[in-house]
Each structure stands twice: as C-alpha cells, then as structure tokens.
Amino acid sequence: TPEPSQEQGDVEMDEQPAAAPTAPAQPSDAPREKISKEKLEAFRKFILDIFSDGHNIEQVPLDRILEEVNAAGSRPDPFDEEEVMECIDEMMQDNQVYLDTVTRALFLI
Fold first, then answer.
1. Distance from C-alpha of 25 to C-alpha of 79, rounded to nearest angstrom
2. How far apart are CA 32 and CA 30, in angstroms?
3. In sequence order, what E strands does 2-104 have?
4. Distance of CA 93 to the CA centre of its chain
5. Which residue of 37, 49, 78, 98 could cross-link 70, Cys pair, CB 3.0 to 4.6 Å?
6. What percent of the chain has pLDDT over 90?
7. Position 40 pLDDT exceeds 70
8. pLDDT-based confidence at 2, cuts 50/70/90?
C-alpha cells in the first residue's frame, strides 16, 4: 500500500489545541465572601431601573447587565462579574428575579 505523501494539498494542521469555550456565567453554590448589603441594594436599584426604563420589557440580556452596571462610572467600587452573579443569586433566592442560564436573560418576577 502506498504511504500518504506530504504533498497532498500541502495543508499543515495547527497542532495547538483549540481554546476551551468559556462556560456561561451562572449562579453558583460555591462558597465565597458575601457581598456588602450596600452593594447588593445598589445592584437591586440598578436592576429595577433597567426594567422600569425599558417600559414593560420582560427580560434583559445578562451581557447588557454586565456592560451597563458600571457604565455610569459613579461607583468607586465597580461590580465585577462574580459580584453581579452573587447579587443575582441573592435576588433569585428572594424571588425577585429569574436567570435563564440557557438564554442568559434575566427576568423580573
């Protein structure tokens, strides 16, 4: 049997593994430092403002929340993604919001 020639198409395969896709942000049961009450209340107000400013919108994409939560630049201690997810966890436990992890949309309850 003839051995395959390297000249077939002269295509070289990139030997580096493809980057693993990042998992979508979602509420976690992992223990971590509790977010401050002041920061949680600021986040709650931000979420209520987004829904009320949207005039009867039913859902807000998580990516929009992550982009806009610090957009005003008025906070000396901006939210990171982990803190946003912790706030959403707290609000879900209080039955205030629901996060659909498939569509990454936040719903006001």
1. 14
2. 6
3. 59-61, 97-100
4. 18
5. 78
6. 46
7. yes
8. low
Q: Tell me if 62 sits within 8 A of 71, measured CB to CB.
A: no
Instruction: Specify the length of the chain in residues.
Output: 109
- CA–CA gap between residue 39 and residue 87 (Å, rounded): 9
Q: How far apart are CA 25 and CA 67, in angstroms?
A: 14
Distance separating alpha carbons of residues 109 and 98, to the nearest angstrom: 7
- pLDDT mean over 17-22: 46
Per residue in 65-81, pLDDT (tens digit) is 998 888 866 677 889 99
Phi, psi dihedral angles at 56 (to 5 degrees): 70, 25
The position carrying tokens 């829904």 is 51
